[in-house]
Amino acid sequence: MKKQIITCKIIYVLICLIFVAWLSSCEGLFSHTKNSGVITIHFVDKVSKSIVPSISMDPASYVIKGSGPGDLSFERTATPGVDETIDNLKTGTWSVLVEAKNADGVSIGTGAESVDVVADGTTEVTIAIRPYSGTGELSLTLTWPAADVGSPTVEASLVSSDDSSIPLAVVLTSGQASITGDLIETGYHTLIVKLFDYSELSIGAVEVVRIIKDQTTTGNLIFTNINKMSGNMLVNIAPELADPLSVSISGTQPTRTLDSTLSLEASVTNYNENTTYCWYVNGVYKTDGPQFDFGPEFTEGYYRIDVTAFSYDGKRAGSSSTLITVLP
Asked: Which of 138, 175, 187, 319 is the most exposed place for a label (fewest CB within 10 A)?
C-alpha cells in the first residue's frame, strides 16, 4: 500500500513538471497576445468630386496594406465613410498604405502614414487620400461661325498655378479648331483661348481645366457670335467643364454706357480660405484681386469678362463670367 502511494506522488510530480515545461514553451505565444495593440484608421478624402476627364474620381473602396515589426503584414478592403479598426497587431512601428479605387476598380489616389502601435491600446491615425502625381492630356474643340471670320487664327495656352505657361497645339479647319496638349502636369490650370481675324482679336475665353494622371481632359468651346472686323456682335460661350469652386460675380449689368463704370466683385461660396482672383476681358488679362472696375477705357462693343479663382495652395480652382454690352 505504501509503495502505491509513493508511486502516485512521483507520477503527480512528473505531471506538474511537464505542465510547467509546456507553459515555458508557450511563453512567446502568450506574450505576443499581451503585447498586441489596435490601429483605427480614419480616411480623409481629398480627391475632388468635380470631374473633367471621363474617369470617376469617387472612391468606392479602400485597399489598406500594412507592414510592421518582424516582416509582419496585413491587407484588407474598407468602405468609404467607415473608419477601419485593425486589432491584434504586434507592438512597434507600422507603415500603413491606403489605395483608393473607384467603382470600376481603377486606382484614383493614395495615402500613407507611419503608426506606433502600443500594447493594450488603440492608436488612431488619419490618412489623407490624394490624387496621383504625373501627367495627363488635354483635347478641346473650338467652333465659331465660319462665315463671320475671314482669316482665322487661334492662340491657346495653359497657365499653371505657378504662373508658368504651356503652349497648346492648334489645328484649324473651317469654323473649327482642335486644341491639344500632352505631358501636362496634374492639377488645375487656366485655359486661355483667343480667336483672331486678320491678326485682330475677335473674341477670347478663359476657363479652368483639370488634368488627371494618365487621363484625357476633353471639352468644347463654342463662340456663337463673333466681333467681326466690320462691327461688333454679342458673344455667347457654352463651356462644358465643371468648376470645383463656386465662383460668382456681383455688380454686373447687361449694358453700360460709355461714360459709366461698373464695379464688379468676385466671391467663392464653397471655400473659406485665402483665394487668388484674376480678371480677363475678352481673354486678355487685366488685374488681380476680388474687385475689378469696368470703366470708360472700354469703348463701345461687346465684352466677356472672366474671373478665375484659385485656392492658396493651388489645388482647388473655379471660374465665372459675365457678358456686358457697352452702349453709346
From this structure: 175
Clarify whether residues 181 and 291 are in a common domain. yes
Q: Whole-model pTM? A: 0.55
Asked, for residue 127, whether it belongs to a domain, the answer is: yes
Report which secondary-structure segment, H or E, holds 22.
helix 2-25
**Residue 294, CA distances (Å) to 50, 278, 306 in order:** 31, 14, 12
Residues 278 and 307 in one domain: yes
| Same domain (yes/no): 64, 191 | no
The total number of structural domains that make up the chain: 2
DSSP at 74: E
Residues 120 and 190 in one domain: no
Q: What is the pLDDT along the chain (328 residues), one digit of tens a residue?
A: 444 444 444 455 454 444 444 444 443 333 334 466 666 665 555 444 333 577 888 889 999 999 999 889 999 898 888 888 888 889 999 999 999 999 999 888 889 999 899 888 888 888 888 888 999 999 999 999 998 888 999 999 999 988 999 999 999 999 999 999 999 999 989 999 999 998 899 999 998 898 999 999 988 899 988 887 554 556 554 443 344 789 999 999 999 998 899 999 999 988 888 899 999 999 999 999 999 999 999 999 999 999 999 988 888 898 999 999 999 8
The residues, any chain, with a CB within 8 Å of residue 13's CB and separated by 6 or more, are none
**Side-chain-facing half-sphere of 22: CA atoms under 13 Å:** 6
Same-domain status, 255 and 287: yes
Q: Which helix (H) or strand (E) holds 217?
A: strand 216-222
> Which residue, of 131, 166, 192, is where some domain finishes?
131
Examine the domain organization and report whether 126 and 163 are in the same domain.
no
Which amino acid is present at 246?
S
